[in-house]
Amino acid sequence: MKTTIRFAAGALLALALPCATLAADYAVQPASTLGFTGSFQGASFDGSFRQWHAVISYDPAQPAQSKFDVEVAMASVAVSDKDQQGALPGKDFFDVAQYPSAHFVSTGFRNVGGKVVADGRLTLRGVTRPVSLAVDFRPQGRNATLDVDGTLKRLDFGVGGGDYADTSVIGADVKIRAHLELVAK
Asked: Going by C-beta distance under 8 Å and a sequence separation of 6 or more, which residues neighbour residue 46?
C-alpha cells in the first residue's frame, strides 16, 4: 500500500512540475504603447508605432521559460514633425515599400544585477541583429504591466544611411520603449 501511495504521489508531482514551469500567456490590451526616441540636430524627438502585434508568454519566477514575439507595421510610424513624418517611411529610412514590417523575437532571458534582460533578434530593413531589452514585469492578479526598453544603433540596420549617415546630425542611438497592459489568457 505504501508503495502505491508513493508511486501515486510521485506521479502527481511529475505531472505538476511541467505545468509549474510554463510561462503564462498574455493578451496585449489596446492601451499598450510602442515607441522610440531619436535625435536630430541635437534635439531629441519621440515617435511611436500605431500598428503592431505582440505575443507575450512570461513567467517572472522562471524567465527562461518566457518568450516575446513582436511584429511592427513600419508604415504606422507617427512623429510630431511633418518633415520627419514624411521621411521616416521613405527609402532612406524605414523603406516601408520594401520592408513593411520589423520583427523582434526573444532568444533568451537573463538576470543582470537583479534586473531581467530579454535578449533577442531584431529584423529591420532586412537586417537581423541581436538586441537586448531591459524587462520590468509587474503582475496584478490576472493582469500585469510589462515595460521594456533598450537602445539600438540605427546604422546597424541601415536606417538613415548614405546621405543621412552623419551621426552629428541624426543621432546614432535610438531608444526603444514599450509599455504593455496585459491580461492572462
From this structure: 35, 36, 37, 79, 80
**What sign does the dihedral 23-24-25-28 (CA atoms) show?**
negative
Do residues 174 and 36 make contact, with C-beta atoms less than 8 angstroms apart? yes
Cα four-point dihedral sign 132, 133, 134, 135: negative
Residues 14-50: pLDDT tens digits?
Answer: 444 444 446 899 999 999 999 999 999 999 999 999 9
pLDDT greater than 60 at residue 112: yes
Say which DSSP state 185 is in: -
Judge residue 142's burial from the number of C-beta atoms within 10 Å of its C-beta, 0-12 exposed, 13-18 middle, 19 or more buried.
Answer: exposed
Average pLDDT over residues 121-126: 98
Global pTM? 0.86
Closest listed residue to residue 48, CA positions, set 185, 176, 183, 182 = 176
